[in-house]
Design brief:
Chain B: It is an enzyme of class 2 (transferase). Chain A is of the alpha/beta class and 472 residues long. Helices cover 26% and strands 26% of the residues of chain A. Chain B has 363 residues and is an alpha/beta fold. Helices cover 20% and strands 32% of the residues of chain B. Chain B is elongated and about 65 Å long. In chain B, the strands form six sheets. In chain B, strands 14, 16, 17, 19, 21, 23, 24, 26, 27 and 29 form a ten-stranded parallel β-sheet that branches. Chain B has a seven-stranded mixed β-sheet with strand order 5-4-1-6-11-8-12.
Chain lengths: 472, 363
């Protein structure tokens, strides 16, 4: 600086120097390269990969099998193991290295998931949460493809895709590790099912050595494989390019078909299968990936089952509670001196009041502001917010909906679920099948009344016994 | 005076209870059924009682010996080698029944009512006929033998057995008083008193009817056993209310609750209406009992709910269990916690650990 040689100027220059020194950082951003200023994971040039996840949450018209519970809130938000169904997906994702964003894609109104995602943002501050709404039926992969620009923002290396109607131990880090080891376009997580139930699932033929998925068939009528798709996938970022190719090919075939059929005048305008914008993950994408040897299969360790029907929430609840108990999670309630007798894995919300003479568990979730009276027995059940259960009543293999009331010596009883498959049918040949007993929102069961193996829609008063009925 | 009680055979309709105990000894309102009848007969001056049986269980002999001593009467077993129907047993017991001129009662062992034996005797002696039949009124007579009298008399014109068309609603209550001369009409062979003997006496204008006041029930099967219990308890409430638990006691709900002094009742229970609880029974906390019979030594555990059921001797009903639909538990039957039993007849010495949702027999 010019001030150095002259004594008079030295005194004037020092403050200027100091000012420049302290103000310098303010000017640096203008001159430095962007990569030094932004967090490392957002860069395309740094070797460590960033991961994202997409959860397909479906929409109100889709989850009819989750009625009557879905009349009060959407299936993905229904609580099992004390937490919303998709919270378990999100929790598992939060434990995956460099998982930075979780995107929900579905047909629900925007406001439905806002409060839940707000809570998730607080609970998992390093992850960004977003809900993207589909407006037209684009198929299980169509929505994913439609929002590819938003998903690809920040250039994630790996993208998880999860379905919402599943209950699982979610070994996602292991899934990712195998995916990265094998370096293929995608990895599907599979689980072993009984041969006799394989036709209920998407079946994957897996080469044990290479872990390559040789073949994929959705709900085959004959036996193909006893490895079922779990609805959990991880894809490389090139998946969108692949999907675009699949769609182009379909468009060509579609045009070709149109050209042929219109000659005979038999073309049908709104045929689903011919909609160029619809892309089904299983039939259109995975099948092709398997054929092109681009799909790996990872065998799930731990538990898995579908939660498509309302009744399936109870065994899912049991699985998650047992996992929490085994993990030593603090949400599990233990027997205490002043508390009720607890057996097995039980969740009791801190605001619930449970009489010391009650006997709870195993596999019971009791939610906020529930009041459980003296001498009550609750087993293998989900008791939702603000339910009051009066003296000596019994709730067994049941779901009791929000704000419901069960009178003294009341009995709400279903049949224990023993099948690992989703409880598909409610009736068979017009006869109600034995299953979990479900009371919708605000159902009143009077003193001494027995409701067994029934499904009760919301806002009903029950003054007489019901067996094996659907009560509207 | 003398009396003949038609006990009959194995009491199969009241199984599984009668697999353990002969029917006359099954407790009805905490007292063997036959004792109710014996006490009433003794009250009316009967000193000789004949029990017409198809088989003679040793246990019955022992118990009835005690009654003989207690009341200072003679009780004889008349054992039919061959089933003799409803009249034949009278001929078989001819020696006792016809030993003097005094009239004798004949009653069906399954019938419960207020047993107006003295009034019947007085009425019978006053009209001087050969037989008097107790008649009761029912709503649906077509299952019974309807009694048709000569207008404005008590004299019986004829019987119509299980009438297809309505002829009247007063039926044969199964309790009679006869003069010994009737024995001349009956041979020692299988005979129906209703079909063969009564019509002849009626033709001779020697058969009369006497109106029964109060309740009447044939308690030979569980459903009617429970109904009969309720009727009996209502009658007791009027005649001897001190025998029932007062309504002021906290667990009593709706009255008609009969509890043996040695039974124990827990806290927070709701018992009644129409409940009998036998000797040394234990009822836990928070138990709800309605229209049911608990035999001696039974144990109903906490928070259970029992209605329209009979719980046999020494049986137990688990916590939070629910019994309904005319369930009958035999001797020493154990229902596990939380189990639902609907209309099951459970044979003795069984444990139930899974729900029985449809009526049926559990062997």
């Amino acid at each position: 600086m010019a001030a150095e040689g002259h004594k008079e100027k030295d005194i004037n220059a020092l403050p200027l120097l100091l000012i420049c020194f302290f103000l310098a950082p303010l000017f640096l951003p203008i001159f430095s390269s962007q990569s030094l200023q932004r967090p490392i994971s957002h860069s395309q040039h740094i070797s460590q990969a960033m991961n994202k996840a997409v959860i397909l949450v479906g929409g109100p018209s889709r989850a009819t099998r989750f009625r009557p519970l879905s009349m009060h809130l959407p299936q993905p938000l229904f609580p099992v193991g004390g937490k919303p169904i998709i919270w378990h997906q999100i929790k598992a994702l939060s434990e995956v290295r460099d998982l930075k964003e979780i995107i929900l894609i579905g047909f629900f109104e925007d406001f439905i998931f806002r409060p839940f995602l707000g809570k998730c943002q607080e609970e998992f501050p390093t992850i960004t949460f977003k809900y993207l709404r589909e407006y037209s039926q684009l198929g299980t992969a169509g929505g994913f493809f439609h929002f590819r620009d938003q998903i690809m923002r920040g250039a994630p290396k790996n993208i998880f895709m999860l379905y919402t109607d599943i209950c699982c131990s979610f070994p996602l880090s292991e899934l990712l590790a195998q995916h990265e080891r094998h370096g293929r376009l995608g990895t599907i997580m599979v689980t072993k099912v009984e041969r006799s139930s394989a036709h209920l699932y998407g079946c994957v033929v897996v080469d044990k050595e290479t872990k390559l998925a040789a073949h994929y068939v959705e709900k085959p009528e004959t036996y193909v494989s006893d490895m079922a798709s779990t609805g959990v996938f991880v894809f490389d970022q090139d998946i969108f390019r692949f999907m675009a190719q699949v769609m182009d090919k379909r468009a060509d075939e579609f045009e070709h078909q149109r050209a042929n059929e219109s000659a005979y005048g038999r073309f049908e305008e709104n045929d689903e299968d011919h909609d160029v914008n619809r892309l089904r993950l299983e039939q259109d994408v995975l099948r092709q990936m398997a054929a092109d040897k681009k799909l790996s299969a990872y065998l799930c360790t731990g538990f898995w089952r579908q939660i498509k029907s309302a009744a399936s929430a109870v065994p899912a609840n049991a699985l998650y509670l047992q996992k929490a108990l085994a993990d030593g999670d603090s949400s599990i309630t233990a027997t205490s001196a002043n508390g009720p007798e607890i057996t097995g894995a039980v969740f009791i919300h801190p605001s619930a009041q449970v009489h010391p003479t009650a006997r709870i568990g195993p596999n019971v979730s009791i939610h906020a502001r529930v009041v459980v009276g003296p001498g009550v027995r609750i087993n293998d059940s989900i008791v939702l917010d603000n339910v009051h259960v009066k003296d000596n009543a019994a709730v067994l293999h049941a779901i009791v909906g929000w704000d419901s009331r069960i009178g003294m010596w009341g009995r709400v009883e279903g049949t224990r679920v023993t099948s690992p498959d989703d409880i598909d049918e409610v009736t068979h040949s017009g006869v109600k099948l034995n299953s979990i007993c479900i009371l919708g929102e605000d159902v009143q069961v009077k003193d001494e009344v027995f409701i067994r193996n029934s499904i009760v829609l919301p806002h009903k008063d029950l003054a007489g016994n019901k067996h094996n009925e659907i009560i509207m | 005076m003398k009396a003949l009680i038609l006990v009959g055979g194995f009491g199969t309709r009241l199984r599984p209870l009668t697999l353990t105990v002969p029917k006359p000894l099954v407790d009805f309102a905490n007292k063997p059924m036959i004792l109710h009848q014996i006490e009433a007969l003794v009250q009316a001056g009967v000193t000789d009682i004949v029990l017409a049986v198809n088989y003679k269980p040793e246990v019955m002999v022992a118990v009835l010996k005690k009654y003989e001593e207690k009341f200072g009467i003679t009780i004889t077993f008349s054992v039919e080698e061959v089933p003799l129907g409803t009249a034949g047993p009278l001929a078989l017991a001819r020696d006792i029944l016809g030993k003097d001129d005094s009239p004798f009662f004949v009653l069906n062992a399954d019938v419960t009512c207020e047993y107006p034996f003295e009034k019947m005797r007085d009425f019978h002696l006053s009209h001087g006929g050969e037989g008097t039949i107790l008649a009761t009124t029912v709503d649906e007579p077509s299952n019974y033998g309807v009694v048709v009298v000569h207008p404005n008399t008590t004299m019986i014109d004829r019987f119509v057995e299980k009438p297809v068309e309505y002829v009247g609603n007063r039926i044969n209550a199964g309790i009679y008083i006869f003069s010994p001369s009737i024995l001349n009409r009956i041979e020692l062979r299988p005979t129906s008193i209703e079909k063969e003997i009564f019509p002849r006496i009626a033709k001779d204008r020697l058969l009369h009817t006497f109106d029964l006041e109060g309740y009447w029930m044939d308690v030979g099967q569980p459903k009617d056993f429970l109904t009969g219990t309720s009727l009996y308890l209502s009658s007791l409430a009027k005649r001897k209310p001190e025998m029932l638990v007062p309504a002021s006691v906290d667990f009593v709900n709706g009255g008609n609750v009969l509890v043996h002094p040695t039974a124990k009742i827990g806290k927070g229970c709701k018992i009644g209406p129409n409940v009998t609880i036998g000797a040394n029974a234990i009822v836990g906390d928070g138990v709800c009992l309605q229209r049911c019979v608990l035999m001696d030594g039974t144990h109903i555990k906490d928070h259970a709910w029992v209605k329209n059921s009979i719980v046999g001797w020494h049986s137990s009903v688990g916590r939070w269990a629910r019994l309904d639909g005319i369930t009958v538990l035999g001797d020493d039957v154990h229902i596990a916690d939380e189990i639902y039993v609907n209309g099951a007849s459970v044979l003795p010495h069984k444990s139930i650990s899974a729900n029985v949702c449809e009526p049926g027999i559990v062997m």
